[in-house]
Write a structure and sequence with these properties.
7-stranded mixed sheet; about 35% helix; alpha/beta; about 500 residues
């Protein structure tokens, strides 16, 4: 009895190495183009290039290469690992071997302490493998979790990213979406859009508004070019420390932001640009929770994460989404020892029934926990209003700031001025002392940054023109915060 009769399938004739190389390498594929856009020219080395599933049910000679390319290379000279799903191979369907390639890539990345870039473009699970394909998703999730906080992970939604893949991408630190080619969803849009008339579910722009995508790029190529820029702000791993770049911007220059902050509902982005090197601000999550800004700047070459209220949007009030957005960013910066600058100008918490129904307290708890637990260098500056518990939760000294500064125009109070006067000083309002005058007195006496400084909650009151210099000096002083391990042998005995 021959082998075909015994097994019911025809024996597979193995191809030579040269035949495999020709079959596995399609330089014209979208996946190969994406690899070229990400890595320095000629530096990419593939891993598991010939790995494939073999099954007579697939037709032909029973051989089909996996819909994912894995490997490593250099991005601006830095070691980076990447997996790039390839829709030209079985539509990028994920099965056991597909998952194995990604998991082995993660093992290499973790051992070598280098970032992982995941480029998602897959039709979903290889259904003919059933539970093995589902297990593949689970194994990848476990690896992503193991790498979290150890090495940076950046997801690029270049094509279809649905179902379990959307869960995996959302586990990454930063998610970048290609508007023209990408889609991100758990349930297929053709189902969910039928349930919600007029919705545009699945689109990258929609996902960005909900906070699932942190940066929207025009297409897959521009998304990968942005990754190259983003990596320059992020260290290799949790032990590497904050990143530095070169800048010729004078560190002691006067910033002159008085004209900005004196305007009603001013844009905090203008202040951030004024104090940063070369006026550059790499914003993340711009379309989500717009009353809070997050992103990266450099100060005298040092990469610093920025968390800031946005007065131009509802007075910079801290909504539930704003709290979650800031909390995640602070947590990310802490993972990789990136210093955090917090700029405060907020009228307080959101006051609405909708907020309370959405478990508002839990969202605020995330922000409080992120600041309280973080061990990275933290400098906070109160620029304008800082009312109530919103002052406390926005990186105040009491919750963990190493240095807390305030402009001389700042207003720090347990309550907004009008409410405070109505509650505590209402008896001072008379025919001769109009409410407006009493409120002005409250601002100058009770809400003055001097009062907070006397209480030890503000380290110094500064003028706006020295903002850049003082913040940079604080971070330079804190540069060794987590880099040295001091050991006490014994007290120095007095004579």
């Amino acid at each position: 009895m021959d082998k075909k009769t015994q097994t019911g399938i025809s024996p597979v004739k193995l191809k030579s190495a040269s035949e495999l190389r020709m079959a596995v390498t399609d330089e014209a594929s979208a996946a190969r183009e994406r690899i070229r856009a990400l890595f320095d020219e000629g530096t990419f080395s593939e891993t598991g290039a010939f790995a494939h599933r073999i099954s007579s049910e697939l037709g032909g000679d029973g051989c089909e290469f996996e819909g994912v390319i894995t490997g490593f290379g250099a991005v601006d000279g830095r070691l980076v690992f990447a997996f790039v799903q390839d829709p030209s191979r079985m539509k990028g369907a994920l099965g056991a071997v597909h998952a194995k390639k990604i998991c082995e890539l993660y093992d290499l990345a973790i051992r070598n302490g280098a970032p992982v870039i995941g480029v998602f473009d897959s039709a979903g699970a290889f259904v003919m493998e059933g539970v093995e394909a589902l297990a593949g998703y689970g194994k990848i999730m476990k690896k992503v979790s193991e790498a979290s906080g150890v090495i940076p992970q950046i997801a690029v939604i270049a094509g279809v990213c649905g179902g379990a893949a959307a869960t995996i991408a959302s586990m990454f630190d930063i998610v970048i979406g290609a508007e023209k080619t990408g889609s991100l969803y758990v349930n297929p849009p053709f189902i969910t859009n039928n349930l919600e008339k007029g919705a545009e579910l699945g689109k990258i722009s929609t996902a960005a508004k909900e906070g699932a995508v942190h940066v929207v790029s025009e297409d897959d190529t521009s998304a990968l070019v942005f990754v190259r820029t983003l990596l320059s702000y992020i260290p290799q791993n949790s032990a590497d420390g904050t990143a530095y770049s070169s800048s010729n911007d004078e560190i002691n220059r006067l910033v002159g932001v008085d004209s900005i902050i004196s305007a009603d509902k001013y844009s905090m982005a203008d202040v951030i640009g004024a104090i940063s090197d070369d006026a550059k601000f790499l914003e993340l999550g711009a379309e989500f929770a717009k009353s809070m800004l997050t992103g990266f700047v450099t100060l005298n070459g040092m990469v610093v994460g920025v968390v800031a209220n946005q007065p131009a949007v509802d007075g910079g009030k801290i909504t539930a989404d704003a709290a979650k957005k800031a909390a995640r960013f602070v947590s990310f910066c802490d993972c990789f020892d990136i210093p955090v600058l917090t700029l405060v100008d907020t009228e307080g918490y959101e006051v609405s029934a909708e907020a309370e129904k959405a478990n508002y307290g839990a969202a605020l708890a995330k922000l409080a926990s992120a600041y309280a637990a973080s061990e990275n260098a933290k400098v906070t500056v109160v620029l304008g209003k800082a009312y109530g518990a919103a002052y406390t939760i926005m990186g105040s000294k009491s919750i963990g700031a190493d240095i807390s500064l305030a402009l001389d125009s700042a207003k720090i109070s347990a309550m907004p001025t009008a409410s405070a006067v109505a509650f505590a000083w209402n008896d001072k309002v008379t025919d001769n002392a109009k409410r407006g005058a009493v409120e002005a007195e409250w601002d100058s006496v009770m809400a003055s940054p001097v009062a907070a400084a006397k209480a030890g909650e503000i380290d110094d009151i500064i003028s706006s023109d020295e903002l850049r210099q003082r913040v940079s000096a604080a971070f330079e002083m804190l540069g060794a915060k987590n880099s040295i391990d001091l050991i006490k042998r014994h007290d120095n005995l007095p004579l």
